[in-house]
Amino acid sequence: MNKNPINQKAKIRFLTDKVLWFWSGLWLICVTASIHLYTQLYVPTPAVLSAVDQPVADTPTSSNSHQRLVGGIVPHHLLIKSQIIQFLVELQADQPQAKHLVVLLPNHHEHGGIKPVVTTKDQEFWSKYAINSNVAYNDNTITQEESVDTWQTLLHDGQLDWQLHPILVSASTSDDDWLALQNLIHELISQNILVITSVDFSHYRSLQDAEQFDQQTQKAMVAYNLSEILTYNNDHVDSPKILALAVSLARDHEFEFDWRWHGNSQNAQPLVDEHNTTSYFIVGFVQ
User: Fold this and answer.
1) Is 198 exposed, middle or buried (0-12, 13-18, 19+ CB in 10 A)?
2) What pLDDT band is residue 139 in, cutting at 50, 70 and 90?
3) For the whole model, what pTM was predicted?
4) Nearest 5°: CA angle at 167, between 132 and 253?
5) All residues at 6 or more sequence positions from 87 whose CB lies less than 8 Å from its CB, including other chains
6) Spatial separation of the C-alpha atoms in residues 283 and 162, rounded to whole Å
């Protein structure tokens, strides 16, 4: 019995459509995976990094070339790894005797309670200071915090041999613990321990909005306006308490701000959502 040619054609068309749908789906999966990998691992070239730089209007300038770096405010994002490493290499050159680096980082996941979190691996180091009642030792929280991994990568790739001592600061840290942390940082600096406050600035905003928030933040910093900074949220900075601590540190020790670099993720990573950017400042403390 002869087969119906119409049924044969329909069957062939059905099979062809299935093949096309399969390859289309596979192509879409590959493209999506490639974009995700790019956004996670992309390291911009020097040419791209130069395009990231977006100077803030009325940025204070100073002739600090003859002064030494003693610390600063640095992001914790590998998108601008080469910029950060350049700053850290200069810091090491200006502080060749330093062996320890204390980095204050946001407790992004708010794990481990509201007290500043440190690792038990640093217990011997911290035992020299009267902070035990104002910090929490929690290795799991330190291990789970991505910004700690970022700093380990920065030191490794920059061939910087400092001993890293991270402190994670919760957005809910009490005033008493914040003041105790402030006193600790003053004591560390008096003993020539390097201290970096590591924050990213305006989050989840368009490039235009981020620049406006960055200008507001910069003006508050220059004016040492801690009360304003402590009212900020992600529109301005990912940890107002750490930024306020950094500004109080500069004020009390009479460090000058050395505005090294300012940029935004949108300029270096065009695949990112244009309404969901992150701003960065690299600010040196000099004296």
Assistant:
1) buried
2) very high
3) 0.77
4) 90
5) 72, 74, 260, 261, 282, 284
6) 20
